[in-house]
C-alpha cells in the first residue's frame, strides 16, 4: 500500500520516536487518486503538516510516478463525502486554520478546518478504539534485534514475555539510557504477541500520548470511552513512563487501568529511562507495582555489539562494511545505537549522493566529518579531566597531582578510564596527560574502575552519567 511504502521511506529520514508519535497516528485512505491522511486531532494534524507533509508528498509522487498526485491531510476517521473540489492540496492551503490558536492539548472533537471545508460534511472524530491500529512497527522485530552482553537479559526476557500465553512476568519493565533499544524490544514483544494471537488487541503508546488522550477525553466528556478502550486491551505497551511524573490525574487513571489489566491477566509492558524506584515524581504505589513483575535493564552496548549492529543494518540494505570501517564507526559512535544508526545512514546517504559503490576509510571520514569534529571537541582528554573534576568537585590540578587520597585518586582513575574508553590515545599518552604517570598506572586505573563499576552501583551510575555527559 502506498502509505506503507511512504512510511518505509520516511523511516530512513525521521527518528523512530517521531514516526511512532506522529506518523503512525495517521489513518491512511487512498481515494480519488489522492492519499488522504486522517489525523485523530489537531496536534497531530499541525505537527504532520508543519514537519512532514512536504516529504510525504515528495515520496508519494516518486512512488506513484505521478507528479500531480495529491496528499490530503485532515482530521477525522473517514474521508468526507464532500466533492473533491472542496479539498485543496495541503501544501498550497493548510487544512487547518493557521490563525486559530491550537490548544496545547489534543482535541478529539473535529475543528472547522477551512472556511470552505467547514461548510462541507464535518469529519467525525476517530473512535477511540480505532486510534491505535497499526501502532506497532513491524520493522522492530526480534529478528532485527542484535543481541549482545548489554541487552541479552532484556532480550531473552522480552522473548519469553512475547512467547508465553500466561502472564507470569507482568508487568515487564524495561529501563535504560537513550537510544539503547527499549522501544525496539517493546515493539518486538507486541509483534510477537500478534503473531501468536492475530486478533489480540495490542497497543503501543508513549506515556505522553496517554496523557494527552486523557486530557482530551475529559474535555470532550468521553472519559468512559477512554477508560473502556484502555481497559479492554490484551496488551498495553507504554513507553517513556517517566513522562507521568507530576501528572497526578494521569497517574491516577493509569493506576486504575494498570490494576484492571493486571486483574484481567492482560499484558503490561513499560519502558523508562530509570529503574522504577528512581523515577522522580511518580507515585510510590505505581513504582511498587512496576516492580511486581520483571524488571530488566538495557545497558550501553560494547564495541563488539555495536559492530554487529552496524553490520546487520548495513547488510539489510545490501551494503558490505569492511572490518576497518565497521570498527571505526563502532568505536567513534559509542554512546547509543540511535547515533550509531545515524552515522551509518549518513554514510549510506553520502554513497548514494556521490554514486559510490565501495566504501573506504577516507570516504567514511569525509561523510562523517562534522560529527567526528564535534565529538573530538567533547572527548578530548582535557575535557574529560575538566568534566570529571567538576563532577566530583575537585580542582583540575588534582587530576595531575601526586595526592593519593581517595577523594582525588578515584576521580583521577575514572577520568583515566574514560580517556581510555572514549579517546584513541595510548596508555603512555594518557599517563603523560595525567601528570606524567607511567602507563602501568593507567592500566591499573582502568582495571580498578571496571572492578568498581561491577561491585559498586554508585560508581557505575557516576561513570554512566559522566560517559553520557561526554558523549551526548
Ligand atoms: N540491539 C539492537 N539491534 C538492532 N537495532 C537496535 C538495537 N537496539 C536499538 N536498535 C535500534 O536503535 C534505534 C534506537 O532504539 P530505540 O528507539 O528502541 O531506543 P530507546 O531505548 O527506546 O530510546 P529512547 O529512550 O530515546 O526512546 C532504533 O532504530 C532501534 O531499532
TrEMBL record:
- Keywords for this entry? ATP-binding, Cytoplasm, DNA replication, DNA-binding, Lipid-binding, Nucleotide-binding
Q: Which PROSITE patterns match?
A: DNAA
Residues noted as binding ATP in the record, renumbered to the chain: 179, 181-183
Main location group? cytoplasm
Query: Which biological process annotations from GO are given for this protein?
Result: DNA replication initiation; regulation of DNA replication
User: Which Gene Ontology cellular-component terms appear in the entry?
Assistant: cytoplasm; plasma membrane
Where is this protein localized, as stated in its record?
Cytoplasm
Where does the record place the region Domain I, interacts with DnaA modulators?
1-81
Q: Which SUPFAM superfamilies match?
A: P-loop containing nucleoside triphosphate hydrolases, TrpR-like
Q: Which residues form the Chromosomal replication initiator DnaA C-terminal domain?
A: 380-449
Residues annotated as region Domain IV, binds dsDNA? Answer: 352-472
The superkingdom listed in its UniProt entry is: Bacteria
Q: Which PANTHER family match?
A: CHROMOSOMAL REPLICATION INITIATOR PROTEIN DNAA
Q: Which family does it belong to?
A: Belongs to the DnaA family.
Task: Give the domain note.
Answer: Domain I is involved in oligomerization and binding regulators, domain II is flexibile and of varying length in different bacteria, domain III forms the AAA+ region, while domain IV binds dsDNA.
How would you summarize the oligomeric state and partners of this protein? Oligomerizes as a right-handed, spiral filament on DNA at oriC.
Q: What does this protein do?
A: Plays an essential role in the initiation and regulation of chromosomal replication. ATP-DnaA binds to the origin of replication (oriC) to initiate formation of the DNA replication initiation complex once per cell cycle. Binds the DnaA box (a 9 base pair repeat at the origin) and separates the double-stranded (ds)DNA. Forms a right-handed helical filament on oriC DNA; dsDNA binds to the exterior of the filament while single-stranded (ss)DNA is stabiized in the filament's interior.
Protein name as annotated: Chromosomal replication initiator protein DnaA
Amino acid at each position: 500500500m502506498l502509505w506503507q511504502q511512504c512510511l518505509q521511506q520516511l523511516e530512513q529520514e525521521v527518528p523512530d520516536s517521531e514516526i511512532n508519535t506522529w506518523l503512525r497516528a495517521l489513518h491512511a485512505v487512498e481515494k480519488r487518486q489522492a492519499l488522504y491522511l486522517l489525523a485523530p486531532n489537531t496536534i497531530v494534524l499541525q505537527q504532520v503538516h508543519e514537519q512532514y507533509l512536504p516529504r510525504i508528498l515528495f515520496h508519494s509522487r516518486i512512488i506513484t510516478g505521478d507528479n500531480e498526485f495529491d496528499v490530503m491531510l485532515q482530521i477525522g476517521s473517514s474521508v468526507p463525502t464532500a466533492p473533491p473540489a472542496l479539498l485543496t492540496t495541503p501544501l498550497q492551503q493548510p487544512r487547518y486554520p493557521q490563525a486559530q490558536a491550537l490548544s496545547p492539548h489534543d482535541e478529539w472533537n473535529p475543528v472547522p478546518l477551512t472556511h470552505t471545508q467547514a461548510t462541507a460534511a464535518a469529519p467525525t472524530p476517530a473512535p477511540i478504539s480505532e486510534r491505535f491500529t497499526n501502532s506497532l512497527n513491524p520493522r522492530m522485530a526480534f529478528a532485527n534485534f542484535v543481541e549482545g552482553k548489554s541487552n541479552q537479559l532484556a532480550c531473552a526476557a522480552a522473548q519469553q514475555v512475547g512467547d508465553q500465553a500466561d502472564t507470569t512476568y507482568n508487568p515487564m519493565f524495561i529501563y535504560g539510557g537513550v537510544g539503547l533499544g527499549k522501544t525496539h524490544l517493546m515493539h518486538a514483544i507486541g509483534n510477537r504477541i500478534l503473531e501468536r494471537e492475530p486478533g489480540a488487541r495490542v497497543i503501543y503508546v508513549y506515556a505522553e500520548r496517554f496523557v494527552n488522550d486523557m486530557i482530551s477525553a475529559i474535555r470532550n466528556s468521553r472519559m468512559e470511552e477512554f477508560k473502556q478502550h484502555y481497559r479492554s486491551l490484551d496488551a498495553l505497551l507504554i513507553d517513556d513512563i517517566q513522562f507521568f511524573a507530576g501528572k497526578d490525574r494521569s497517574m491516577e487513571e493509569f493506576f486504575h487501568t494498570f490494576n484492571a489489566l493486571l486483574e484481567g491477566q492482560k499484558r503490561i509492558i513499560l519502558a523508562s529511562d530509570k529503574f522504577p524506584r528512581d523515577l522522580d515524581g511518580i507515585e510510590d504505589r505505581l513504582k511498587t507495582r512496576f516492580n511486581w513483575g520483571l524488571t530488566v535493564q538495557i545497558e550501553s552496548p560494547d564495541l563488539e555489539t555495536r559492530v554487529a549492529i552496524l553490520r546487520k543494518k548495513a547488510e539489510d540494505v545490501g551494503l558490505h562494511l569492511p572490518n576497518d570501517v565497521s570498527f571505526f564507526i563502532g568505536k567513534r559512535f559509542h554512546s547509543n545505537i540511535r547515533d550509531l544508526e545515524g552515522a551509518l545512514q549518513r554514510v549510506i546517504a553520502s554513497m548514494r549522493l556521490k554514486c559510490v559503490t565501495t566504501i573506504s576509510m577516507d570516504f567514511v571520514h569525509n561523510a562523517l566529518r562534522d560529527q567526528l569534529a564535534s565529538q573530538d571537541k567533547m572527548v578530548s582528554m582535557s575535557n574529560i579531566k575538566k568534566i570529571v573534576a567538576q563532577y566530583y568537585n575537585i580542582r583540575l590540578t588534582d587530576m595531575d597531582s601526586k595526592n593519593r587520597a581517595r577523594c582525588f585518586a578515584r576521580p583521577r582513575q575514572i577520568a583515566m578510564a574514560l580517556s581510555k574508553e572514549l579517546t584513541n590515545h595510548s596508555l603512555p599518552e594518557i599517563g603523560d596527560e595525567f601528570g606524567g604517570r607511567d602507563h602501568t598506572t593507567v592500566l591499573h586505573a582502568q582495571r580498578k574502575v571496571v572492578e568498581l563499576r561491577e561491585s559498586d552501583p554508585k560508581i557505575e551510575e557516576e561513570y554512566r552519567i559522566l560517559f553520557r555527559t561526554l558523549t551526548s
